[in-house]
């Protein structure tokens, strides 16, 4: 079986609000999959059902071949979870917490190595309450990976990271992915999805609107380019073109060399994403 | 299996010892109360039994209730609020390990607290340690049953409130009211009859009475509501509360507030 996660017709409602409305999802083994979607689109509900935290109303769900609603300790040992805003152990040190969690797993990684991987070695002997927001997040990640999971859930993992910490975190994710870990990531940062994910899925209103590699989402690679330049009067003119190279050549001829203020752009992942969730809303 | 429980217990104890407020609150509070009350109320209830001796037994029972009931009824919702429980549920840790850790912590604190309270009471206020094996045994089972009942009720009570703040606000008055009506601050038989009847439903009154049978002279039994220590009833009611607490825990415990 090649699917790490397989979901068909997933439904979940709270009182009379439908959070997930018939969602289908396949995540292949060894893949990094990013779930994008606005707040309230059903991302966290979906992920927490896959993690075994929430019950579903309807649908087929298989995670590592088991139903997460019924799976036991052996299944949990194969899954790593980094939740949004998880509880801290204020009075314990980083090393104590990581060591303690390592003890829950049958084939845990070396705690010191995990601490080094998330870049907390210097803080290993500090109480966790003295950590900054970004450092706490790294500790969350350390606890998520200390059991050497086959499948890692990351719910908005880099919230609160400075740019440098985010780059380091991306390295860690690539590292884990290249070692064969399947990763399901939710994020609000489109650059993060674009950098890390093999495929992205966009959730809007409880449904998966589209799944594609980041470069192909919303037929982005086939979308017309926008060519913009400054006219002789100084105004900016912009045109969508299927053949931007020809247009640029024509402009070059018209201006007799350099085209002032020339830009050629394709829709960014953000443009495509905003259009998609806009259409649905 | 024992290893997991030990590890979890050690972690709980370490966290407890490192948070100064909880150490002061649970350990020093009963001691301070004894010092204050013993200095104010210096009369004898009956010849040979001072109010201090009466009060000290009540404070030991209160200490057990604080450690078992109050601390868990407040601490567990805080941990649930902050997602500690959710995080633990995401690991292969068997759920019972979490409770085992709490029980180990409660037992350890209770033992230390009893030793401290006895040391203060014997050293400063003339409480006499039990002189017979039988009384030590009674001390043992009343403590064990009472602490178990309080611990289970504390875990059960942790599901009453949805928030950490709400938990403090509900558990504290419950504990305080029980202390007033169960004969900790006042001689139980001096309380209005209806208050005695209400108190007799709950464990604290019976824990106090059981401990009085251990530390006060046998003659004092005549001063009790039934004219005797009623140890059989003490055991029965505390055991019943263990059963009620356990059923409530199993039926109502919530790892998170999500559905």
TrEMBL record, chain A:
Keywords: Antibiotic resistance, ATP-binding, Nucleotide-binding, Transport. It is found in: Cell membrane. Coiled coil: none annotated. It is a peripheral membrane protein. CDD domains: ABC_DR_subfamily_A. SUPFAM superfamilies: P-loop containing nucleoside triphosphate hydrolases. It comes from the Bacteria. SMART domains: AAA. InterPro entries: AAA+_ATPase, ABC_transporter-like_ATP-bd, ABC_transporter-like_CS, ABC_transporter_ATP-binding, P-loop_NTPase. Residues 5-230 form the ABC transporter domain. Its main location: membrane. PANTHER family: ABC TRANSPORTER ATP-BINDING PROTEIN. This is ABC transporter. It comes from Phytohabitans aurantiacus. The lineage of its organism: Bacteria, Bacillati, Actinomycetota, Actinomycetes, Micromonosporales.
UniProtKB/TrEMBL annotation, chain B:
Keywords: Antibiotic resistance, Cell membrane, Membrane, Transmembrane, Transmembrane helix, Transport. It is found in: Cell membrane; Membrane. Coiled coil: none annotated. It is a multi-pass membrane protein. The lineage of its organism: Bacteria, Bacillati, Actinomycetota, Actinomycetes, Micromonosporales. Belongs to the ABC-2 integral membrane protein family. This is Transport permease protein. The chain crosses the membrane at residues 23-43, 55-76, 96-124, 136-157, 169-188, 234-253. Residues 21-256 form the ABC transmembrane type-2 domain.
């Amino acid at each position: 079986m090649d699917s790490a996660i397989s979901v068909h017709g997933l439904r979940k409602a709270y009182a009379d609000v439908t959070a997930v409305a018939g969602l289908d999802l396949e995540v292949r083994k060894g893949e990094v999959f990013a779930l994008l979607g606005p707040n309230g689109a059903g991302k966290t509900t979906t992920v927490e059902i896959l993690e075994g935290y929430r019950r579903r109303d309807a649908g087929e769900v298989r995670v590592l071949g088991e139903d997460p609603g019924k799976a036991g300790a052996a299944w949990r040992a194969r899954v790593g979870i980094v939740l949004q805003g998880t509880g801290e152990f204020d009075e314990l040190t980083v090393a104590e917490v990581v060591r303690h969690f390592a003890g829950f797993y049958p084939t845990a990684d070396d705690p010191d190595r995990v601490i080094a991987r998330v870049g907390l070695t210097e803080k290993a002997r500090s109480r966790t309450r003295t950590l900054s927001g970004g450092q706490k997040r790294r500790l969350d990640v350390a606890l998520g990976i200390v059991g050497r999971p086959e499948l890692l859930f990351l719910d908005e993992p880099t919230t609160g990271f400075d740019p440098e910490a985010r780059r380091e975190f991306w390295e860690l994710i690539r590292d884990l992915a290249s070692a064969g870990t399947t990763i399901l990531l939710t994020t609000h940062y489109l650059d993060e999805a674009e950098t890390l994910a093999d495929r992205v899925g966009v959730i809007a209103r409880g449904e998966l609107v589209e799944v594609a590699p980041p470069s192909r989402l919303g037929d982005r690679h086939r979308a017309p380019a926008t060519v913009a330049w400054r006219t002789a009067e100084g105004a900016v003119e912009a045109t969508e073109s299927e053949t931007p190279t020809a247009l640029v050549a024509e402009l070059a001829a018209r201006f007799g060399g350099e085209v002032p203020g020339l830009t050629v752009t394709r829709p960014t992942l953000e443009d495509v994403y905003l259009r998609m969730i806009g259409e649905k809303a | 299996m024992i290893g997991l429980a030990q590890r979890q217990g050690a972690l709980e104890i370490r966290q407890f010892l490192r948070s100064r407020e909880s150490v002061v609150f649970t350990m020093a509070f009963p001691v301070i109360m004894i010092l204050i009350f013993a200095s104010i109320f210096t009369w004898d209830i009956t010849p040979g039994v001072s109010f201090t001796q009466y009060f000290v037994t009540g404070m030991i029972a209160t200490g057990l209730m604080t450690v078992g009931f109050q601390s868990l009824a407040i601490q567990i919702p805080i941990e649930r609020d902050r997602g500690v429980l959710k995080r633990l549920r995401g690991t292969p840790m068997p759920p019972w390990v979490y409770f085992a850790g709490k029980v180990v912590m409660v037992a350890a604190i209770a033992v230390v607290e009893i030793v401290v309270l006895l040391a203060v009471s014997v050293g400063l206020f003339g409480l006499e340690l039990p002189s017979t094996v039988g009384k030590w045994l009674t001390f043992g089972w009343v403590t064990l049953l009472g602490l178990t009942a309080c611990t289970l009720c504390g875990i059960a009570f942790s599901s009453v409130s949805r928030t950490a703040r709400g938990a403090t606000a509900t558990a504290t008055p419950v504990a305080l009211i029980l202390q007033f009506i169960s004969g900790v601050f006042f001689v139980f038989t001096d309380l209005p009859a209806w208050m005695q009847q209400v108190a007799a439903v709950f464990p604290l009154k019976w824990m106090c009475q059981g401990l009085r049978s251990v530390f006060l002279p046998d003659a004092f039994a005549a001063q009790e509501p039934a004219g005797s220590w009623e140890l059989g009833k003490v055991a029965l009611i505390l055991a019943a509360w263990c059963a009620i607490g356990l059923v409530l825990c199993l039926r109502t415990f919530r790892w998170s507030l999500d559905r």
